[in-house]
Amino acid sequence: MEQKEVESVIRGDQTGLQDTINILEKISPEYYKKEKEKIFNRSWLSICHTLDLPEAGGYRVVEVPTFKASLLIVKDRQGVIRGYHNICRHRGNKLIRSGSGDKINFACGFHGWVFSAQGQLVNVPDEAQFKTLNKDNLGLIPIHTDVWEGFVFVNFDKTPRSTLKEWIGQMYGDFKDYFSGKEKLTRYQVEVNCNWNMALSAFIEGYHTKYLHKLTAPDYQGGKTNKNRHRPLIETQERHTRYSAPRNPDHVATPAEIAAYKYGKKLTPAFDNDNSHLPPGVNPLRSDIWAFDVIKLFPNLVMLNSNYWHLAIWFWPIDEVRTVIRAERLFYKAKNAGECFGQAFSKVRAREVLREDLNTLEATQDALMSGVMQDIILSQQEIPIQHHFKVSDDMIGAA
Amino acid sequence: MSHHLPPEFSALDSYTREWALTNEKDRHDHLVSLSIDQLKPFYEAMLPQMDAITKYLNQFSLDAMPADAKLLFDMAMTFMESAHPIDLHWKTTDIEDKFPAERFQFYPPSTV
């Protein structure tokens, strides 16, 4: 007997979503100008993981291409995380060139001015030569910084219009301990000649997986009872969206995959389905055909959360046609070589899938720039894209 | 540096110079520089040994491997990161329809 196809559970308020989007408007310089002013300047933006900062205190430099800003994220010895603009208050030199480290006092390489973890200007060489200098007024320029479940967020607004807790909304308490206890094993970056909305849109639907990834992950999702790979769950929230991707119960392991997962956990393209240790924010439906969740944290972070790994992909517009994409993957900590082999196998499979996703972006941008086609049309499986543009339009329309 | 594996695996010694690579970027760059026919002998030599290799290496703590075991570990990791073109029946080690390798940037920890 023919089994019925999986029907997606669709949750949330879909009022006002549009399945037809004027994409030429969304990739125009005029729209981008508004996005920068009313979306990026007003949103809580995730910029890195807390595990990028040394455990006992230290710093990390994070570049934010959208604002041509360099940020210095500092964790003091008590564990408090603060963010500053990475600029010396003397002559404007970039204080720390790049990278991360364990120091919490920052001496400018130009004239030796020193700033503390609390941002205070604590030493000026030959200070008596300055006639009007007041060290109290020349601390590092702070940026609003907060932390949620292992992610550092900043807000470029003078006065943020919401707290980070309000910004995250209904998911805020649902990820306890999910991100901790993992280690970062991959970090990639590319710059693409593509509008950031289009780049991000390629990562927030699963409709493409059957076709685009047929050579790198031919049968990781779907299967006999879910040929069109419908998402078990698609959910829109006030600002964010999430969906669950369906694993394939009929997946056939290849020879190296069998060797990779014999002594460790299945990661990709096969998936372990033990949900018992997961907090409510991961596989929220407790679906038994679950592979991983895709969460779009508005505006520009896409997370893939699976049983034993997490991938974060950030989309940073440089302008309306150029985007910096950063992808970083965390895994459960391997205890032995066998578990390392599973991670290695999985991370490379996922990297090749990512490179296929990336390869569509410039081709789409180029084709649309011809101007012959104005509208794109979106299916129910692409609701997260519909929702992304609705939230964008709402923020742009706000005073 | 010694190129000798633990005695149980000495039949694989001849592969260590080319394949005992220590990070993802080096493994990737090497893989895509090869033809599928150049990859095949390493794949075919390693695959039947992986079970024994894993059992052997699992007896060591990850941060306290003897030098010959670490060499075997690096080579087995390279195998895990280089097996997909043959597992998936590709005709080349890097398919055309992917973001150009030269524009894809690796950062630590993918380079260390």
Mind explaining what this structure looks like?
The complex is a heterodimer of chains A (399) and B (112). With 399 residues, chain A is an alpha+beta fold. Chain A has helices at residues 23-26, 29-40, 164-168, 196-201, 209-212, 255-261, 337-369, 383-397; strands at residues 9-11, 20-22, 45-49, 58-64, 69-75, 81-85, 100-101, 106-107, 114-115, 121-123, 142-148, 151-155, 182-192, 233-236, 241-246, 290-297, 301-306, 309-319, 322-332, 375-377. Chain A is built from eight helices and 20 strands. In chain A, a hairpin with a 6-residue loop joins strand 8 and strand 9. In chain A, helix 6 (255-261) crosses helix 7 (337-369). Chain A is globular. The N and C termini of chain A lie far apart (57 Å). The model of chain A has no long low-confidence stretch (mean pLDDT 96). Chain B is mainly α. The two termini of chain B are 18 Å apart.
